[in-house]
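Q: Give me the 3D complex with zinc ion.
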Amino acid sequence: MVSIKIHGGKDEIGGNKILVEHKGTKIMLDFGMSFKQSGLYFSEFLKPRKCVALKDFFELGLLPDINGIYREDYLKQMEKPEEEKGIDAVFLTHAHADHAQYIHFLRNDIPIYCTNATEIILGVLEETGRGDYSDLITACEAFTFYTNAKGGLSRVTRKKEEFVKTRIFNIMETEKKVKIGSMEIEMVPVDHSLPGSCAFIINTDEGNIVYTGDIRFHGSNQQSSKDFVEKAKEANPNWLICEGTRIGEDKQDNEEGVRNEMSKLIKDAKGLVFIEHPIRDLDRVVSIFEAAKSNKRQFVVNLKLAYLIQSLGDLCPFKLDDVKIFVPRKSWGLICKSGTDEKLVNADYSKWEIPFLRRDNSITYTELQKNQIKYVVSMSIWEINQLTDIRPKDAIWIKSSCEPFCDEMEIDEERKKHWLEHFNIKEYSAHASGHASGIEIMEMIKEIKPKNLIPVHTEKKSVFNELKIPVLVGVNST
Ligand SMILES: [Zn+2]
Ligand SMILES: [Zn+2]
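A: Here is the predicted complex, encoded as structure tokens.
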């Protein structure tokens, strides 16, 4: 019997955790964080306590209590006995937090299968991320002491390399199926707002399963999504686990339209152009790069984006040398004090930021202030305090990201408006969703013709009933 249990993402957008079981083989599809569930109890300043390991997460339903999947150091902290490994592999569709963030909690010896770009992005997130829960491609043993050089006890930190374990990552390639016990899993690339996104087709001798992951048909990889639909149809699936973020919504989006709109706004701009965008949405980043270039302006990226572009290498259509890198003043602000010792300047920045401080294409606020008409600057509400240094005149702000969908985001948006008013910056918007429209999802399902439908990543499951295909919440094993 095939069993499909949705441990996250059932009646909400994201937090996908899908356990598939067949003849003793168990695989997990995605292991993401539920923003909805987490937001019910926690905020930026009220976080689950690391000292109780998984306890807060279990108590509040943020993690499923499944035997044999969690890290041994965490179980030990909870005084739980050692467990046998409970699943054979984890397959990640992409590196968005709502699909991948909680791999932090998984045992090291569970192999993770994903695309090359997904592993790179997880590596970037681990390096640039803050907080207690960002062990993604490695895992640093927690709650452990060691005997230091003075003979006393010290806590383990990431600096002690022997305690940092690498997870087992297996890079999937197109057309190459992976065999795990009684299942064969094929990775099929799809279009979404993150590089390396994919869907999975799972073959078993008792029926095939197709999982869309997050999908759209209007970005630069739209052909991949169309090819995926063909492949999924050929698989004649018994079960289609299908995302439904925008189910019931008719509005059709278009990334090319976003690029044209941005280009038009940049053309008319008389001063600096700031663009607020999802930092790792490479499709959008390329759109901004092209829109700036066609208006003979230079695209200015922040340090995180610079690090991502460099890490993606050939997966990014342009090179880091083709853009300018904005180095903000941090901590003591020594970067702008000429003649300061390099080592002292470096102390203002994280280790990963240092290689970007003195490149030929690195700039600070002084250049942006001097030549405002020359640049299009990637900007976010988290760096908006840089405006005090930059002193923009006649600037515009293009919001190229989704509208706020929770109270905290509403408050951030309100705060941003105050900054823009203060500096007399006019705001425009140009955005396309990372998800297919409701109509496109319905058409995709009709084309694939699954025997059963399991909606995930949606708050409007009932809309799927219109298709007259049995809608399930999961498949039980017997
Ligand atoms: Zn998602
Ligand atoms: Zn996503």
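A quick observation: The chain has 14 helices and 23 strands.
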